[in-house]
Q: What sequence folds into this?
């Protein structure tokens, strides 16, 4: 009886050891597969394998830590994707404003161009091109104002000349030669 009990205990211990070894092998296989997937940036696959490992050994810290690392990594990737999306939208808006500003500038619609370049500068304050174009608009407008002023003076001078000639002609018709000569 004692021998039978001893052999039964040995068989039970061997079976328990075999089961423990099988559990450890399954756990290690799940961890190894999870680590490989994590290193390969296959985060959902890694999550599945780490959850499998936790199912085998629920008290183990490593798979739980790796699941937390996956959550953190996925959050970082989502934040980066959102930032990239926002940067692309900002760049598209900037390029559209520049394109519209350039079209207005080339069409001599300087106030419209100023509005678009100012909009572009509001989107990307460090960009030099809109600033340079705003300076070019100011220069064009100053040239236009100077030309308008010169034209106005020339028109006034022409009007004064024509008035003087008309007055001289009128004085000549009345034979007021002194006034005609002065005019």
A:
């Amino acid at each position: 009886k004692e021998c039978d009990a001893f052999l039964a205990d040995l068989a039970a211990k061997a079976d328990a050891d075999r089961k423990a070894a099988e559990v450890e092998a399954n756990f290690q296989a799940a961890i190894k597969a999870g680590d490989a997937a994590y290193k390969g940036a296959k985060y959902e696959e890694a999550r599945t394998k780490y959850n499998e490992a936790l199912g085998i050994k629920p008290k183990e810290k490593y798979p739980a830590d790796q699941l937390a690392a996956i959550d953190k990594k996925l959050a970082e990737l989502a934040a980066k994707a959102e930032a990239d999306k926002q940067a692309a939208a900002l760049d598209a808006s900037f390029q559209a404003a520049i394109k519209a500003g350039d079209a207005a500038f080339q069409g001599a619609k300087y106030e419209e161009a100023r509005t678009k370049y100012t909009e572009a500068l509001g989107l990307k304050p460090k960009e030099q091109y809109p600033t340079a174009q705003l300076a070019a608009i100011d220069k064009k407008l100053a040239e236009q104002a100077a030309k308008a002023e010169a034209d106005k003076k020339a028109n006034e001078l022409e009007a004064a000349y024509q008035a003087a000639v008309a007055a001289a002609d009128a004085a000549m018709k009345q034979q007021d030669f002194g006034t005609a000569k002065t005019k």
Observations:
- The helical segments are 2-39, 43-56, 61-106, 110-123, 128-173, 177-182.
- The chain has a mean pLDDT of 93.
- The radius of gyration is 45 Å.
